[in-house]
Amino acid sequence: MTTSTVLKKRRRVSSSALLKAVSTSTAVETGKPSQAIEMKLRSGKSRFKSLPLA
């Protein structure tokens, strides 16, 4: 059997792990400290609250 035909069990990702992954990825791209980006994400403040997501 190939890996495409085998069903893999999905693990649930915690929100803190997701925030950490996004902040470190963004830090690598922007050159800013990941801790600062993570704190901004955790604050929940958005620049565009009036715009709905597609």
Helix fraction? Answer: 40-55%
Q: Tell me the fraction of residues in β-strands, as a range.
A: under 5%
**Total helical elements:** 2
Which parts are unreliable, with pLDDT below 50 for 5 consecutive residues or more?
A: none
Please trace the helix and strand order, writing H or E for each element: HH
Number of strands: 0
Shape: extended
Largest beta-sheet characterization: none
Average pLDDT figure: 86
Oligomer: single chain
Class by alpha and beta content = mainly alpha
Please, could you describe this protein's structure?
- The protein has 54 residues and is mainly α.
- The protein has a domain at 14-41.
- The chain has two helices and no strands.
- Helix 1 (15-30) packs across helix 2 (34-43).
- The model has no long low-confidence stretch (mean pLDDT 86).
Chart the SSEs and their pairings.
Elements: H1 15-30, H2 34-43
Question: What key attributes describe this structure?
Answer:
single chain; 54 residues; mainly alpha
Brief characterization of the structure:
This protein is mostly helical.
